[in-house]
DNA sequence: AAAAAAC
């Protein structure tokens, strides 16, 4: 019974109905419309998974026989070097973008003054039903809403008053460019030229000659080094010294030295060198043939360091903490042995395929998209040995998830809220869960997540195996570790520092009022670009800004319903838009192939956020560039942030139109 | 303070 857990549930009923408190989605007209242009362009239309159909509001009513064979899907997995394939499942190429204006009636009047009036309207963003904007007067800004091209400053009051209330929002009209500003520009130039701080920072090139010709000095960065850059090689790189690792402020103040020291020590204890795993196969690590074969099909032919380090310990049944940098293959590191172990544990159990059986493994992730992505890796692995997964996350109707649970699944993958919800209402029995994974574990142990997470952990089988993974795994997990793990093995990969990264970091110092114009220039290149903003409102605003400037952009953030979030991500993944503007919902874990440039329109607040955002590019050993736009008044703060993140970036003052911006945009 | 995560 292939694809049992994905089988359509809930028939033809409109899936948006149960999932969202808000008034319904776009009109039926909108949903049904098939754009000839898109269909013609794409030729063959990629098929949708059941989830995508539901997520896009089309109903999960396709007969099972039409479900694409696995070979047709493009499962998502942690990237595998040159074998990397597109990781986010292909989304419908044929999706009407400009049909049905229902959601955007608050912007209908805008069309008349759009400079790009013939371009399709951004009807699919849907301000109208979002709570955060609920009090925004509709159509108020219609006639007088200024076009937001750079140089065409928005008038305050058009939407500034009731829209994003941002402290650093430029009071454009009230701040004509002054001599003082000019003066400061000169100062910044000076700052740049005598900037001494790079020398104070840890230099990796001293004992790592292979990077000497790469990013060791700012002059080398000007270009041309890429082709000469030697291949990555961890072999003789010294172990990371965690003693130097910057601590989180709050943790520093929190006095529980005992636990923290233990975790910290353990983290140092077992560092695996990539050279140690050379020649090792997944089979050597203890995975069965079917799983090994499936991994190869996913593109994972040989284990990455983090995988080689953790798989044996997971198979032995012990608790494991794993730390491997972004894009290093953590999903397989816990997913594959988890499946193998379930299989071993159920050997000889003739009730293992019982209808309605309770899940025995649980994987928790901080966002729905990440949960979905993990499932795209774990599901085929599980399937290869006859186990079933299902996704349990919020924002979508219950019916399909409940149906899957009623039939019985082996592995539940999801986000805390809905899992707790179903667990509390007795629909999801966690008592048989003997393996629990916290992906992005440090984040899952933070305020806001810790409570539901611990409640879920409390419901799982006592003494069960627990696996905590994150690129930024730190002592923030100490409480959870202390409470729920027993003598965990702690693994990391040696030499994962900035010098061994394929990601280059740059900071553009600019005038706050120039931010949007510079962003437009940066985002205008051909490659995929991911833009991060600090708030939902600003993300939304920037996507509009770029769209109005003729750059196809989508936004993704928590104010959008799930189908819009998924659609935005799909469009970005399959290249139908080149720019995705996101809040930190997309900061962790999400893998999209070939993001060449990450732009931080706002610097993040936390160094870990910086690392995760940056990790959306430079995946699987590819080159990546992170550009952070920093207004002068945030310079200090950003310097501190980068220092904590252990990142060396080149700082450059810029103005709109600078050649450097264009150069960076071309990457 | 924001974002994420249930309805």
From TrEMBL:
Short motif Q motif, span: 280-308
Keywords, alphabetical: ATP-binding, Helicase, Hydrolase, Nucleotide-binding
Superkingdom of origin organism: Bacteria
Compositional bias ranges of the Basic and acidic residues kind: 61-88, 95-257
Biased composition (Basic residues): 14-32
Domain Helicase ATP-binding: 311-491
Region of interest (Disordered), ranges: 1-257
Stretches assigned to the DEAD-box RNA helicase Q domain: 280-308
Stretches assigned to the Helicase C-terminal domain: 514-660
Keyword Iron among record annotations: no
Keyword flag Nucleotide-binding: yes
Pfam family, one: Helicase_C
PANTHER family: ATP-DEPENDENT RNA HELICASE RHLE, ATP-DEPENDENT RNA HELICASE RHLE-RELATED
Family, as annotated: Belongs to the DEAD box helicase family.
Protein name: RNA helicase
């Amino acid at each position: 019974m292939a694809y049992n857990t994905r089988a359509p549930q809930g028939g033809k009923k409109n899936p948006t109905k149960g999932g969202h408190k808000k008034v319904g989605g776009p009109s039926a007209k909108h949903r049904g419309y098939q754009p000839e242009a898109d269909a013609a362009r794409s030729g063959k239309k990629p098929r949708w998974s059941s989830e995508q159909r539901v997520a896009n509001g089309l109903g999960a009513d396709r007969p099972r026989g039409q479900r694409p064979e696995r070979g047709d899907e493009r499962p998502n997995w942690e990237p595998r070097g040159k074998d990397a394939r597109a990781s986010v499942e292909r989304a419908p190429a044929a999706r009407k973008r400009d049909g049905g204006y229902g959601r955007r009636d608050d912007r209908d009047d805008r069309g008349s003054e759009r400079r790009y009036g013939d371009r399709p309207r951004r009807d699919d963003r849907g301000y109208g039903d979002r709570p955060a904007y609920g009090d925004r007067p509709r159509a108020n800004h219609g006639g007088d809403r200024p076009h937001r091209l750079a140089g065409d400053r928005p008038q305050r009051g058009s939407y500034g008053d009731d829209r994003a209330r941002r402290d650093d929002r430029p009071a454009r009209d009230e701040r004509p460019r002054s001599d003082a500003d000019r003066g400061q520009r000169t100062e910044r130039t000076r700052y740049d030229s005598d900037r001494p701080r790079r020398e104070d920072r840890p230099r990796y090139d001293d004992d790592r000659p292979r990077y000497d010709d790469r990013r060791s000095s700012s002059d080398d960065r000007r270009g041309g080094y890429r082709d000469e850059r030697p291949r990555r090689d961890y072999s003789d790189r010294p172990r990371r010294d965690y003693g130097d690792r910057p601590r989180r402020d709050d943790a520093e103040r929190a006095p529980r030295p005992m636990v923290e020291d233990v975790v910290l020590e353990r983290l140092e204890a077992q560092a695996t060198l990539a050279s140690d795993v050379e020649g090792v196969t997944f089979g050597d690590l203890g995975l069965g043939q079917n799983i090994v074969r499936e991994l190869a099909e996913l593109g994972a032919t040989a284990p990455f360091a983090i995988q080689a380090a953790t798989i044996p310990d997971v198979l032995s049944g012990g608790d494991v903490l794993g730390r491997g940098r972004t894009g290093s293959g953590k999903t397989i590191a816990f997913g594959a042995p988890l499946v193998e172990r379930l299989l071993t544990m159920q050997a000889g159990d003739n009730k293992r395929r019982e209808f309605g059986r309770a899940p025995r493994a649980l994987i928790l992730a901080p966002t729905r998209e990440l949960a979905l992505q993990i499932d795209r890796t774990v599901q085929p692995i599980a399937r290869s040995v006859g186990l079933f997964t299902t996704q349990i996350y919020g924002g979508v109707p219950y019916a399909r998830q409940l149906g899957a649970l009623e039939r019985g699944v082996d592995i539940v993958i999801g986000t805390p809220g809905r899992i707790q919800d179903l667990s509390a209402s007795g629909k999801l029995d966690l008592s048989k869960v003997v393996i629990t994974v916290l992906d992005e574990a440090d984040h899952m142990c933070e305020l806001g997540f810790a409570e539901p997470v611990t409640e879920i952990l409390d419901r799982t089988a006592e003494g069960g195996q627990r696996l905590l993974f994150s690129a930024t795994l730190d002592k923030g997990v100490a409480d959870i570790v202390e409470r729920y793990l027993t003598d965990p093995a702690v693994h990391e990969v040696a030499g994962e520092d900035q010098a061994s990264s394929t990601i280059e970091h740059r900071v553009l110092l600019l005038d706050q009022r120039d931010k949007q114009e510079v962003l437009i220039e940066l985002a205008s290149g051909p490659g995929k670009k991911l833009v991060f903003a600090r708030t939902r409102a600003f993300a939304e605003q920037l996507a509009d800004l770029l769209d109005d400037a003729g750059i196809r952009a989508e936004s993704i953030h928590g104010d959008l319903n799930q189908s819009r979030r998924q659609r935005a991500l799909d469009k970005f993944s399959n290249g139908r838009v080149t720019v995705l503007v996101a809040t930190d919902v997309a900061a962790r874990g999400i893998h999209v192939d070939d993001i060449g440039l990450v732009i931080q329109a706002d610097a993040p607040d936390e160094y870990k956020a910086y690392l995760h955002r940056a990790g959306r590019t430079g995946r699987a050993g590819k080159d990546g560039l992170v550009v952070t736009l920093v207004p002068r008044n945030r310079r200090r703060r950003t310097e501190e942030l980068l220092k904590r993140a252990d990142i060396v970036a080149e700082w450059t003052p810029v103005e709109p139109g600078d050649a450097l911006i264009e150069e960076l945009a071309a990457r």
